[in-house]
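Example S7 (structure tokens).
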């Protein structure tokens, strides 16, 4: 069985810091998303059957500019797999605690857990719209490392599933942001060091691929 990943043409971003939550959406965003892809905190945990593309080093914590090239590389590798090799299937579960990835193709079950405070960014890819990508801070990372972050990418059955997965992670992020804020208020708003603060900042990009491309085009035109 060969692996086929086609690029397709297809909303706002949620950027969250410990003490603030800002939500920006494009004007036509609500019209583009059906209720089928919307996910709220009460819907978690929620599971998706996906194919794991793999991981690549990321050059930054937030933004599609740090996921695009890694996704291109992983898709290229997948397209050139030999006929007897296929991408591994896995169950990806988004919960309030983070993301759990359980392999369902190998004889030996493999489970990976990424806690919500180690995930810094999630997005439906701009070019390959069935691909969902997220940036994860490496365990025991050191900011002096050249690449302390990794991009993990997954192929969904449909564009709608990739979008729903993105909304699921957004719901988990929002719950985590609320818990962080409540904890800080309980502790009298005490500050935290740079490293801990870094791990509490994250972003989810809910723009559609078309909206992302339009924004990029407008930025290039203005430049």
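Recovered sequence:
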């Amino acid at each position: 069985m060969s692996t086929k990943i086609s690029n397709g043409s297809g909303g706002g971003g949620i950027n969250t810091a410990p003490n603030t939550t800002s939500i920006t959406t494009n004007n036509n965003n609500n019209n583009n998303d059906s209720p089928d892809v919307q996910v709220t905190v009460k819907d978690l945990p929620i599971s998706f059957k996906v194919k794991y593309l793999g991981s690549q080093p990321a050059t930054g914590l937030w933004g599609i500019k740090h996921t695009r090239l890694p996704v291109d590389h992983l898709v290229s590798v997948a397209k050139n797999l030999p006929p007897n090799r296929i991408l591994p299937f896995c169950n990806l579960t988004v919960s309030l605690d983070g993301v759990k990835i359980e392999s369902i193709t190998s004889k030996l079950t493999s489970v990976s857990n990424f806690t919500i405070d180690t995930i810094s960014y999630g997005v439906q890819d701009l070019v390959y719209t069935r691909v969902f990508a997220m940036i994860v801070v490496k365990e025991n990372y050191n900011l002096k490392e050249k690449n302390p972050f990794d991009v993990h990418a997954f192929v969904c059955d449909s564009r709608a599933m990739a979008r729903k997965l993105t909304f699921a992670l957004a719901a988990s992020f929002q719950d985590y942001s609320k818990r962080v804020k409540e904890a800080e208020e309980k502790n009298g708003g005490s500050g935290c060091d740079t490293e801990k603060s870094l791990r509490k900042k994250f972003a989810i990009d809910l723009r559609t691929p078309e909206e992302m491309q339009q924004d990029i085009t407008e930025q290039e035109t203005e430049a």
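Notes on this example. The first strand starts at residue 12 and ends at 17.
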